[in-house]
Amino acid sequence: MREKLKYFSDFLAKRFIEQGMDEDIAQFLNMLINIAIVFVLWYLIHYITKTILLTAFKRFTDKTKTTFDDFLVKSNFPRYISNIFPLLLLIVAVPITFEEYPQLLKVFETLVDIYIIILIVLICRSLLRTTTNYLKRHEKYRDKPIESYTQVLMIVFWSIGFIFIFSELTGRSVLGFLLSLGAASAIILFIFKDTILGFIASIQVSVNDIVRIGDWITFSKYGADGFVTEINLATVRVQNWDNTYTTIPTYNLIADSFHNWRGMQDSPGRRIKRAINIKQSSIRFVNENDIEKFKEFGLIAPYIKERQEEINNYNLQMGVNKKHLLNGRHQTNLGVFRQYALSYLKAHPQLNQEMTMMVRHLAPTTQGIPIEIYCFSKDKRWEFYEAITADIFDHLIAAVPYFDLQLFESPSGDDIIKAVREMSRESI
Fold first, then answer.
1. Could you give the domains of the chain?
2. What percent of the chain is predicted at pLDDT more than 70?
3. What is its main location (predicted)?
């Protein structure tokens, strides 16, 4: 086969020499013509194989139900494969075409070898992208940082490719290049420090299940508050609630502290934890008239009746002097309000009654006594959660005066002016 190709390659050179042309000029002219013929053949074979493969892949993907072959087409896998047949032509034709010119032959063989290396890397990259996109469609892998591992493998492939290209260009062996590279390992580690840290962080994030794609995280240091949309080798991409994007270095997810709201998203309820401050001077013991009024409040009527009977029986047994309310046991308007707030929460249809629910009394402060509401809403969506919270506190704030209580509020300018005017009137 080679002899036949050699015969056709030298055919024009022989004819030029027979016509009286100088042998060197005839050989050089013959080489140029052969180069042109090889180039035309390479283009035709490349065009034909590309057209055939793309058409065949398209028809095949249209008939199959799997999406893997669709991603192969999107990642240009057929286009890269179509380069193999023209490449075979170059491997056979280049040594014959430049046989009379060893130096040019060496240059073109080096270029062909580099072409082969790059083509192999591109095919590997295409397969990696296809596999990544295919896995991301499955629910099992959708929240995993697959992009990080893909990028690491691509760095490895390109690094190996560049090592072989360097070996081809310099004529040094790959082993010798790697040995000399070891001496510069400190510099390489410094250059790829972020990549190495990102790779290690990606593994830790995945193994320890720290963050998944779709998690709601809050990272105050970087101003991130939203859903994780992408986890790759170097960064984590977060879409904030205002539809802006924040990128966070992957390594910082294990180096710094941040909030991951996945537990709340997976739980049957979202926590409501908020307090209202009661003015301390408005707290007092309740009297008989107050008891009768409170019995008219449907939510706490049974509690008031049962509680008051318990207190009356105790005071009677202990022989308490009823002249002063300080003696014995008595209910307070704040205690009744706390019970009313708890009964209101238990009757609220949008709260999860199976999760922790309480109204607790916190330590007094300079802003009054905080009465904290602690419960969980059934609906975890932000806008509905805020609406439920507002509905609860609208009602409780409006209910405070019915228990002869007052909310604490820092005095405004109008309050100060009003107080000064009253003092002026009294002085007159």
1. 2-137 (no CATH), 143-154+169-266 (2.30.30.60), 268-284+332-428 (3.30.70.100), 290-330 (no CATH)
2. 79
3. membrane
